[in-house]
UniProtKB/TrEMBL annotation:
GO biological process: formaldehyde catabolic process
Pfam families the UniProt entry points to: ADH_N, ADH_zinc_N
EC numbers: 1.1.1.284
Cofactor(s) the record lists: Zn(2+)
UniProt lineage: Bacteria, Pseudomonadati, Thermomicrobiota, Thermomicrobia, Thermomicrobiales
Protein's recorded name: S-(Hydroxymethyl)glutathione dehydrogenase
Keyword Manganese: no
SUPFAM superfamilies for the chain: GroES-like (SSF50129), NAD(P)-binding Rossmann-fold domains (SSF51735)
Record InterPro entries: ADH-like_C, ADH-like_N, ADH_Zn_actinomycetes, ADH_Zn_CS, ER, GroES-like_sf, NAD(P)-bd_dom_sf
Family statement: Belongs to the zinc-containing alcohol dehydrogenase family.
Keywords: Metal-binding, NAD, Oxidoreductase, Plasmid, Zinc
Single GO MF descriptor: zinc ion binding
Length: 371
């Protein structure tokens, strides 16, 4: 069948909108008609070459859609089911899956290759060139074929143009605070960077009962919006020293937990968050740095003498099959904001404008809507 998709042919910083050929799902695979996909900074790393991939490739990993067809052996879903797609299709058998961290499944190593689990491709150009799908899902496409292990069925009453955010930015941010950050009631939390992930770290910290949630960014309107998501204090790092302000707000102690959710992390970003963290506190790094970056501004002696921690997290350390439905229940109950995250919607043809808006700080989250 034919599908229209946004394709990267290299680190060109430009998506090409093309008609591609898409194969039917094989055993253990599902064909999904996409309804909505969030525009995430992580995919942009392939557009810049900060993180290499096999090109050409269709990025996109924050998707929601409706099952169109299932391959042989698939019993978990059926045509008509509403689903989210997860960018790590857990095997359920490796050490990481069996110890409760399926987002670190060994299958994740295949994400940038673009082939399906059997090593073959489902997309190709009209002249026969194989096209990869990032994370085996490639959600910047009208239709996609994905492993059933990457499919999470959800209730049909949840609007898919909002639910798609629960495929990435919501669990990544909420999980960074509640799971990896282990925020406890009464703690002080500082979040650096207020994009889609950062705003969810703010509401994740608030949901966990933080007494102060300090939001740090350089865009005034985002700082104002952060208060709607639970921020109690805001700092514009263009005008104020965030470390000093956080120390002032905590009587010189520092934040219990700091969370770095900047979309393009530089070594000094981690250093700033680290200095704002109290003794024996935890700094959680969520945003991606370029693959070539091999250091961060953290004094090693401090780690020992002050007992601080710097930890990373992928996908907020969530379990998609458990936590996606849980987050949607919070949304249904009015305790988790999704609608307010969507600043702008785009057609697939407008995806380059969507990324320009993201890079220039004009959106919390942009969402591609498919016809």
């Amino acid at each position: 069948m034919k599908t229209k998709a946004a394709v990267l042919h290299g680190p060109t910083k430009v998506f090409s909108i093309e008609e591609l050929e898409l194969d039917e799902p094989k055993a253990g695979e599902v064909l999904v008609k996409m309804v909505a996909t969030g525009i995430c900074h992580s995919d942009w790393h392939f557009a810049t070459g900060d993180h290499p991939a096999r090109y050409p490739i269709v990025p996109g990993h924050e998707g929601a859609g409706i099952v169109e067809q299932v391959g042989p052996g698939v019993t978990e879903v059926q045509p008509g089911d509403h689903v989210l797609l997860t960018f790590i299709p857990p095997c359920g058998k490796c050490r990481w899956c069996l110890t409760g961290i399926p987002v670190l499944c060994d299958r994740g190593a295949q994400a940038t290759i673009g082939a399906q689990l059997d090593g073959t491709f489902r997309l190709r150009t009209t002249d026969g060139q194989e096209v990869g799908q990032f994370a085996m899902i490639g959600c910047f496409s009208q239709y996609t074929v994905a492993p059933v292990d990457a499919i999470v069925k959800i209730d049909p009453d949840i609007p898919l143009d909002k639910a798609c955010l629960v495929s990435c930015c919501v669990p990544t941010g909420v999980g960074a605070a509640a799971k990896r950050g282990e925020v406890r009631a009464g703690e002080v939390v500082a979040v650096f960077g207020l994009g889609g992930v950062g705003m969810n770290a703010v509401q994740g910290a608030a949901l966990a009962g933080a007494s102060k949630v300090i939001a740090v960014d350089v865009v005034d309107w985002k700082l104002e919006a952060a208060q709607e998501f639970g921020a109690t204090h805001t700092i514009n790092a263009k005008y104020d020293d965030p470390v000093q302000r956080i120390l002032d707000l905590t009587n010189g102690v520092g934040a219990d937990k700091t969370i770095v959710t900047i979309g393009h992390v530089e070594p000094e970003h981690i250093g700033i968050a680290y200095r704002a963290t109290r003794k024996a506190g935890r700094c959680v790094v969520v945003g991606l740095a370029p693959i070539a970056t091999d250091s961060m501004k953290v004094p090693p002696a401090d780690l020992v003498l002050l007992g601080k921690e710097v930890v990373g997290t992928l996908y907020g350390h969530v379990n998609p099959r458990v936590d996606f439905p849980y987050l949607l229940q919070l949304y249904r109950a009015g305790r988790l904001k999704l609608d307010e995250l969507v600043t702008q919607t785009y057609s697939l043809d407008q995806i380059n404008q969507g990324y320009q808006d993201l890079l220039e700080g004009r959106v919390i989250r942009g969402v591609v809507l498919f016809e």
